[in-house]
Amino acid sequence: MGTLMHTAAVLCTTDDRQAEAIAAALPWLQVIRCSDGESARDACQDQEVRLVLIVDESPRIDACRLFGELSGHQPGLAGVLLSAAADTALLHGALEAGFSGVVELPINVLQANRVVHQALERYRLQQENTRLRTLIPLYRLGEQLAAATSEEGILERLLDAVQQQTKASRCSVMLYDQKEQCLRIASARGLYPALVRSLRLQPGDQIAGWVFQQGKPVLLNKEDQGESIFSSLLRQPEIVSSISFPLRICEQNIGVLNISQRETEERFSEADNEMLSILCSQAAVALENLRARQQLTETIRMRTLFEQYVAPEVAELLMAQNADLMELGEIKQTTVLFADIRNFTRLVQQIDLWSLRAFLNEFFHFFTEEVFRHQGTVDKFMGDAVLAVFGAPVKLDHPCLAATRTAMAIKKRFTELRQQWSQHSETFLGVDLGIAVTKGTVFLGNLGSNRRLDYTVIGNEVNIAQRLAAEATACRIYITEAVRRELGGSFEVEELGEIELRGVEKKTRVFSLLEGQERHP
After folding, report:
1. What is the C-alpha separation between 224 and 469, in angstroms, rounded?
2. How far apart are CA 359 and CA 155, in angstroms?
3. Mean pLDDT, range 417-436, rounded to an integer
4. Which domain, by its residues, includes 12?
5. Does residue 142 lie within any of the structural domains?
6. Does residue 487 sit within a domain?
């Protein structure tokens, strides 16, 4: 008997001896004795009862009428009729009234246990079928919500399910608009289109605003609306019943589901409230997943866009900013690398533009590849020149060393590129590359306007790098005194003395990197 032990059952009879005999025959039941219909109704309301045992004592107790009343208040309730005059007619009448079986009196223990067990098994199967009838549509709704590709699609499916389950004549979903800081109707059934478009509620205003702010549902029926704290807000007396239920994502209220009934006298109940809880939870999960997918898609799109212009590290920095991007910037010590293709004007005049484009793309490709490999940042392409930065925004222990290694690798690959393209045209043999590396204080950050931003570096060291690269010939690499000091003895250099650079007030002490391998201590 396991799970049936101590099952609550109401026994309705006026005969005390009969009641004792029935209880003794069914010792595994928790029998609640009632002597009339009123006490039986109270017992069923006060606690969870699965089974009603009614002794046929007409006219004092009309068993069929009483069971009809009890099962009307508690659908699915199992019933067994006990009678001293059990015959075919009584059995047919009992079954038509909804009883699961009839037990003949005086009571037979075996028969009574068999009939009661069958009645409880029928009750269990009915409850299981009810759950399945509820869960299967909910499971299908979950699949439909998960398959939706827009918030509108999720809300439409939610309202379809709400109307199907509650028979509400009007329903709507209001979502909080962050931009306007108010609740707006995002989807509705049975409401005037003009109202849907115009209605705005502040958090705390009206019933829906209160539900949104407090995160608690409100169930109102016509007969008890006057006693509600919201009685002053109820301006539509034609509403018979209504529920406002909060929509939540990750403990945050995002909106309110509103349903109302005005076309019938049907009232919403706590069961409807529980149903809305399940439906709203499923919709909230679907909205959360959809927004997460959309955010991920947008993040990937933006990252891909950023990485077409800046290093992955800079893209990460820009994507992580919650503040105004115009405010993104800092002044710090940075190493600057500038590379300038020499004799490019002559190349433009003699080489077709498609070939010229392909040549530049190859150059920019390996330039970017080497800069990124040494954890630098490509600041910008400028026609036939490129600017890169080391030590910011990605911090490096030895930015000058990283920049110099990058310069050496670019020089080697440019020489190979020029040789390859000379087979296409000897004009490429006249192309040269000047490279310069400087170190100093610069501004690194966003410049421009809200409509067009450029993450770049500005400062005197940038100007010096550009001028030095213009002075370098034969693919030589020029460095400043500050760079040479940081490199120590890692590379062999030749001092060129102080050079006067156009646009730079003071002369610049310059060194040229000599051919050879990097020295390791």
Report:
1. 86
2. 54
3. 88
4. 2-131
5. no
6. yes
